[in-house]
TrEMBL record:
It comes from Dictyostelium purpureum (Slime mold). PROSITE patterns: PROTEIN_KINASE_DOM, PROTEIN_KINASE_ST. This is non-specific serine/threonine protein kinase. The keyword ATP-binding applies. GO terms for molecular function: ATP binding; protein serine/threonine kinase activity. SUPFAM superfamilies: Protein kinase-like (PK-like).
Length: 220
């Protein structure tokens, strides 16, 4: 296994797309597993003119994701929010390459995301909806929009001990992937009027611009 930042070993690759690769890392000292989202950040000086603006926009979205992760991982300020827990981030310089790697380390949720689940008891589903609605309510107060709520972006883990009444397992749920998120500064702010998200979960109103109910559409 290759060592990263003198702290982590790469255990395996979990997923990838054109922009980022997600790995399972193990902390060398803690012997604890974490998620690493590794992102290529290109040196603007090496890009063609047509590539510079898209890369600037991408870098801005990555910086926003980091900002939101750090902000909502503050459990003293947001003890009621189940957002994936930010641990740290670091840059890996790639000699003789036109890019560097940004690694974002977050908590590892053993059960994965909801797309891998086989269903939950009714009370777990109600609990999940309540937790996500609490998060969305806080986002609304902060003038913040997630823009990509879907099963693949909600993670969960099994709690210790079964439910005392039903005897069934109990779970805790966490919202992740803030990469599509935006802050809304006003009614004409670009963040609300650009399309983002996954087609199967986008509200029809997004085509013409967000309205208040859109933030809840993906939960239906």
């Amino acid at each position: 296994m290759k060592e990263y930042n003198n702290k982590y070993y790469k255990v395996k690759k979990l997923s990838s797309n054109l922009e980022r690769v997600v790995y399972l890392y193990e902390n060398i000292q803690e012997k604890k597993l974490y998620i690493c989202k590794r992102i290529k950040l290109f040196n603007l000086e090496t890009l063609n003119d047509s590539e510079i603006e898209p890369e600037k926009n991408f870098t801005e979205s990555v910086n926003q994701e980091l900002k939101f992760l750090k902000q909502y991982s503050n459990k003293e300020k947001y003890p009621h929010l189940n957002i994936i827990q930010y641990i740290e981030d670091f840059i890996t310089i790639k000699p003789n390459k036109d890019y560097d790697h940004l690694s974002i380390i977050t908590e590892y949720y053993e059960n994965g995301d909801l797309s891998n689940s086989k269903g939950f008891p009714f009370y777990n589903i109600v609990y999940l909806l309540v937790k996500i609605l609490i998060i969305l309510d806080q986002f609304k107060e902060d003038k913040f929009v997630h823009r990509d709520i879907k099963p693949e972006n909600i993670f969960y883990r099994t709690l210790n001990g079964p439910n005392r009444i039903t005897g069934e397992p109990e779970y805790e749920f966490y919202l992740g992937d803030l990469g599509s998120s935006r802050i809304i500064l006003g009614l004409t702010q670009d963040g609300r009027y650009t399309q983002a998200g996954t087609n199967e979960f986008i509200a029809p109103e997004v085509i013409e611009g967000y309205i208040t109910p859109c933030r809840y559409y993906s939960l239906v």
